[in-house]
TrEMBL record:
Entry keyword set: Adaptive immunity, Immunity, Immunoglobulin domain, Signal
Chain intervals with Polar residues compositional bias: 91-102
Bilayer-crossing regions: none
Protein name (Swiss-Prot/TrEMBL): Ig-like domain-containing protein
BP-aspect Gene Ontology terms: adaptive immune response
A Pfam match: Ig_3
Location of the region described as Disordered in the Swiss-Prot/TrEMBL record: 91-110
InterPro entries given in the database record: Ig-like_dom, Ig-like_dom_sf, Ig-like_fold, Ig_sub, TCR_variable_region
Length: 110
């Protein structure tokens, strides 16, 4: 039997600025009744949205209900709008990462 659970994502909407080479952590918190949530990070650049690169790391903390995306060595090519989602779909919550050479709800059925 299928059931649907209630879910909500809370992602900061402020821009994040970093210098090349910095480690950057983007995060969002989630609430869900799903015991096995699927969490994803996407990035939007030049009008297209796609999953984040495999050289990024994502960490889920179920106790704090938080999912972080870590970019270990930020590069200019990492500048984009980032989305977190509880399913393989994009939500309206965004965080923008801008890098510079100088510092300057959903739930799935089970």
């Amino acid at each position: 039997m299928d059931f649907f659970c209630l879910s909500e994502l809370i992602q900061p909407t402020e821009d994040v600025f970093a210098s090349e080479g910095d480690t950057v952590t983007l995060g969002c918190t989630f609430e869900t009744t799903d015991p096995y949530p699927n969490l994803f990070w996407y990035r939007q650049e030049m009008g297209s949205i796609h999953p984040t690169d495999s050289d990024f790391s994502a960490y889920i903390n179920k106790t704090e209900k938080r999912v972080n995306l870590e970019i270990s060595s930020a590069a200019l090519t990492d500048s984009a709008v980032y989305y977190c989602a509880l399913q393989p779909t994009v939500t309206g919550n965004t965080t923008t990462l801008s890098t510079d050479e100088s510092p300057p709800n959903d739930c799935r059925g089970v």
